[in-house]
Specification:
Length: 127
């Protein structure tokens, strides 16, 4: 494998199935974030679209249940995927995550369904 770390988008449910319940969305974000360590431990850089989209929404005076959210959450993931090298799709129903997978496949990016599938690399730390 190439020595360069991959930028891997972690995709899975965030708002899906929550009915707009903030605690349920927070639990979904925690599940997405729990996948960050295995990606990092494999020598890569994990990224979650909500890490970028939620501050953008807040700066617009909105939150994840506001009408503006659809104009920020999905486009953020799409723009982010232009820079990503792969997607890790976590289990659970999610139209946004399914869209991320479809975009990744159209762009020829690998889609992993388990962190164990991600190739490990031995990072060459800066000396």
């Amino acid at each position: 494998m190439n020595d360069k770390p991959l930028l891997i988008l972690i995709a899975g449910p965030y708002r899906s199935g929550t009915g707009g319940d903030p605690a349920a969305m927070a639990a979904n974000l925690e599940a997405l974030e729990a996948a960050a360590w295995p990606v990092f431990a494999a020598g890569h850089v994990p990224v979650i679209g909500e890490w970028i989209a939620l501050p953008v929404l807040r700066s617009a005076g909105a939150g994840p249940t506001d009408p503006l959210a659809d104009q920020v959450l999905y486009p953020t993931a799409d723009r982010l995927l232009a820079h990503c090298d792969a997607v890790l799709r976590l289990p659970g129903a999610s139209a946004g995550a399914d869209q991320d997978v479809a975009t990744a496949r159209r762009r020829g990016l690998p889609v992993y369904h388990d962190a164990a599938e991600i190739p490990h690399r031995t990072p060459q730390e800066a000396r």
